[in-house]
Amino acid sequence: AYLYAWYADNGLRCQMCLFHPSHCDEQHPLHLTNLLVCVFTLLSAIANQLLLQAKLKRGYDSEDECVLCFFRFVMISVSILPFSTAMCFLSAMLLHLKSVAIYFMSAIPTILGWGTVLCVPLFVCCDEEF
Question: Cα 122 vs. chain centroid, distance in angstroms?
Answer without folding.
Answer: 23
